[in-house]
Amino acid sequence: MNQADVSKLMSQLRIAVKPHRNLRNPDGPEGRLLKLRKTVTALVKHERIELYYNRADEARGYAELLISNAIRYGDRHKATMELADYWLLEKQLVHKLFKVLVPRLENCNFSYTRMYKAPRDYPGMYYRKSVLELRGNPYPSLLPDYTNNRNLIHNVLLDEARKDYRREKLAELADKIASESAVNAEKVGSEGDAKEAENVEKA
Amino acid sequence: MAGNKMLFQTVLNTLQRFNRLSNIRTYSTSKETVSPAIAKRNELFSEEQRRQKAAVGRVEKIEVRYLGLPEDVTLAMNAHISTPYNCAQHLSDGHCKRSALALKDGNVPWDMHRPLTESCTLQLLNFTVADPHLINKAFWRTCSFMLGAALENSFTDEAHLQLHSFPGPNIKSGSFVYDIVLQAQSWQPTKAEMRALSAAMIRLAAKDLKIERLDVNNELALEMFADSRYKREQLPSIAQQNQGRVTLYRMGTHIDISRGPMVASSRFLGKCTVAAAHKIANEGDKDALYRVQGVGLPAGFTLDHVSYGTLEERARKLNSARLPNEPFEEQHQQIA
């Protein structure tokens, strides 16, 4: 009951975090962190980068945390500013983080970054590759768009099926109206006959 | 274990009984042996293919300008030997796997396995390009062609199936078509029979059969289709419209007449349903003409079952394409 709500103390990441990797480096943990700082900086700077999978996956979590804290606390929070100062090696990117990325991503309901598996060069290094990008970047999408192109075969088929269905419904409606009007015409016709007969009698 | 075996036996018995009734092989995968007529036809096809390859003579180089991803390149290829598929092999494995049709000089659709004759520009098309009109049409035509093969594989000899022809591809009609003649004047296909035909289509797709194209002269075509009455009747008019040449396509052992182009392999067919068979007219006292219809999507296209169900529903309605027993409306029309 009286326990602190952990999610209020620390933002929950919107990505599945994999176990810690050591990212082998001759300079030890500092070297590893420098590598990740370079990656996070490059991500914020270029918005879409292609790199080895492990490094991208590891850096992604830090980038997510940085953006989520920036959105949560704003630029008047000392700890967040220190965090931004640490992760972004080029200091003009601190401005970009708070003035560009925060307004863009504050209403985002999913993760702030996106990661794709990329094909690896053949022949070349064996390591898996990936593409890491910020959401809402200005580049064309990496995934094919199957929904907006009306000329794709399934869209053509579905469009025609819809038109066919509408045509059928319209024909049904027309039949219904025609039969109703026929019934009315009969009624009117018979009434007219009765009146005529009355007129004749009066005469 | 015993229970399973018994169940299997029951199912098998039911299917066998069913087979006797319907003349469609619901259980066996395909005809084990190729009939002598088809074997002969294939032999003639291969022989003509060899002859045409040998007739190329001195190898001449052509420049093929490839336009597209990853970059525009110029390839030095061999005239009358190299195909767009060979060009794709120079690019990457992905190009070979994904490309279903080539576009020559920006406007002529060209089969992936058809040799290039002169220097040209080349684009490789897949099903997700911005304007997939041409490739969709080729796909629909290939579906009709494959339906012919599936029908030929599925009917037993007692059914006396004869393939008639298929009309030009029209995707907007909602179904691809093959017209056949059966020695049965009141065949009402059951659901299980339709499912067996659909399965035959899927089996063809799984086999990843290369679709080859060959232009032959009328005499050879008549010899190849000597046993097929309806094809033989169609050949003279087709040859007449095409300077005495007839375009044939082969997939596995199935050979058919078609104007083309078609996609590179049977593997490009993904989801597929043979939806209906409508009787069109009686042929003589025993035979009758049927129109078999289906709907399909290229491999890699996923559609939820409700949407696909509406497509299937629509494919059951009789396709309004030209019927084989109607006269041609215009002189230039041709069987696809």
From TrEMBL, chain A:
Q: Which Pfam families match?
A: Ribosomal_L17 (PF01196)
Annotated Basic and acidic residues bias? 188-203
Entry's SUPFAM superfamilies?
A: Prokaryotic ribosomal protein L17
What processes does the entry annotate via GO biological process terms? translation
MF term (GO), any: structural constituent of ribosome
The entry sums up its family as follows:
Belongs to the bacterial ribosomal protein bL17 family.
Query: Mind telling me what this protein is named?
Result: Large ribosomal subunit protein bL17m
Q: Which gene encodes it?
A: RM17
From TrEMBL, chain B:
Query: Which residue range or ranges hold the TGS domain?
Result: 60-126
Q: Which organism is it from?
A: Bactrocera dorsalis (Oriental fruit fly)
Q: Which gene encodes it?
A: LOC105227923
UniProt keyword list: Ribonucleoprotein, Ribosomal protein
Q: What's an example GO cellular component term for this entry?
A: ribosome
> Mind telling me which SUPFAM superfamilies this protein's record contains?
ThrRS/AlaRS common domain
Give the protein's recorded name: 39S ribosomal protein L39, mitochondrial
Keyword Transcription regulation in record = no
